[in-house]
Design a protein that fits this description.
This protein has one domain: Beta-Lactamase. It starts with a strand and ends in an 8-residue tail after the last helix. The protein is of the alpha+beta class. It has a five-stranded antiparallel sheet, sandwiched between helices. The protein is built from four helices and five strands, in the order E-E-H-H-E-E-E-H-H. It comes from Candidozyma pseudohaemuli. One of its GO terms (biological process) is endoplasmic reticulum to Golgi vesicle-mediated transport. InterPro entries: Longin-like_dom_sf (IPR011012), Sedlin (IPR006722). It holds the Pfam family Sedlin_N.
């Protein structure tokens, strides 16, 4: 089954705004902490790919098969890391494990994640003075979780 392992949002200033794991159980243990560190590291690796001048080459190579700027950035430890940079500099990074997802499905995930982000930021009741804590709300978490849960988990062809 194709499954999203983590979602990460990084600001235009290259500060992590949000990193959430989705392959953990109910009870958090030592392995979950290690997984969080692993996905945090993968998010920072993705940031390095975005910043490299060679990433422009990567974008040009993947452009014909790419949908709206979504790129396969790299594969590490059986996790395919996809990324997209929005026109306002927000970097959305999604780690997918076990199986290759359809680009159309990924496009939908990235689009929905961006909409949830915009809804949170553009909310007139959001205190933007909090800075990085703006995305640390139950409403934002549940919106992201709903998107991840709705991601098509199709069986992998043998």
């Amino acid at each position: 089954m194709t499954k999203i392992n983590f979602v990460s949002l990084i600001s235009r200033d290259d500060k992590p705004l949000y990193i959430q794991l989705f392959d953990v159980g109910d009870a958090l243990g030592k392995d979950d902490a290690n997984r969080f560190l692993k996905y945090n590291f993968l998010s920072h690796m993705a940031l390095d790919v975005f910043l490299l001048p060679m990433s422009l080459n990567l974008r040009e190579q993947q452009q014909p098969q790419s949908h709206d700027g979504i790129l396969l950035l790299f594969i590490q430890d059986e996790v395919m890391v996809y990324g997209m940079e929005t026109n306002n500099g927000l970097k959305i990074v999604v780690g997918v494990g076990e199986g290759e997802p359809l680009l159309a499905d990924l496009k939908e995930v990235f689009s929905k994640l961006y909409k949830v982000y915009l809804r949170q930021i553009c909310n007139p009741f959001t205190d933007l003075e909090k800075g990085e804590d703006v995305l640390q709300t139950k409403r934002f978490d549940s919106g992201v979780k709903a998107i991840v849960d709705a991601f098509p988990a199709k069986p992998v062809a043998p």
